[in-house]
Amino acid sequence: MDLQQRINAFAKLGRFLCQFKTDGITKDDTVTSNDLFFEGFKHQIKLAKEHNGWFTEANILFSLESWCKALTDNNIKQWISKYNFNLSEPKTIGIIMAGNIPLVGFHDFLSVLISGHKVLVKQSSNDKHLLPFLAKYLEVVEPGFKDKITFTEGKLENFDAVIATGSDNTARYFEYYFKDKPSIVRKNRNSVAVLTGNETHEQLEALSDDMFRYYGLGCRNVSKLFVPKDYNFEAFFKAVYKWHHVIHEAKYANNYDYNKAVYLMSEFDMLENGFLMVKEDPSYASPIATVFYETYDSEDDLKKKLKSDSDKIQCVVADGFMKNEVDFGETQKPQLWDYADNVDTVEFLLKI
Question: Which of 25, 110, 210, 302 is least buried, going by the fewest C-beta atoms within 10 A?
């Protein structure tokens, strides 16, 4: 199986996923092998929703639509154009996946297979229904993948390198356990937004997408705001109101009620609007239904702080503040070349 065959297979997968969008699920009879997989994947979406209450249909379909847009022939070729794919010998790459948002480990899965390696996947129990089904689709549209993809529920064994994603605590275990293997170990990260007070309503409304999509559970979700001294949150609260419906979803509402009770009993100062709490706090990781904020005096000092804390930050949302910033509303729309933790996964895989 050559590189072009791998590209073709993932582009076909992208076309398959384009049937599952946030504005509805519509069958396209021109999609390769659709009669075998369309109804089955609808069932997997149903199972994923039933298994994990955070995986609403809206969140699953948002993830699928994002991959539909990413997995085009042109996009894949643009992504891989800078690499040399002449592997001397394919290796087996273990991937330990997180389960915080739907298909969160798909980019690692894609990177391993597009590089020509074999993949050994250990999924999170929170996100176990979607990827194995999509792997079967790949094996049907490109039979060369049949001996390249393995899933395991047990201990990872017989692999040459590993990509592991977890918390700061599990990362210490990963680093010890995989110390004799080439590895990428990812820890907790959060995303931040830098506000000046001059943002438009549209920018702040887009920021609310960065905060609330996937209930804020992803590392690319904004959980912390940096604002000028004496920042007025009135325009911010008006803009985020577009997400007020989230309070009607039971798991979110339970977290909101619990965290609000904790803050009130602890007599913490906070602002809230009935579905979101805003609390001044130096931490980056905020609880569900809460966004933390911190004030800054000087942009230069803030840039230094963000640089020194770069190992805790996934994205910085801003408008003309710094290099490599992300536009408002774009954190959950990464391109194929936007690597987690800024570690080039494909470069790592091609050097093994």
Answer: 25
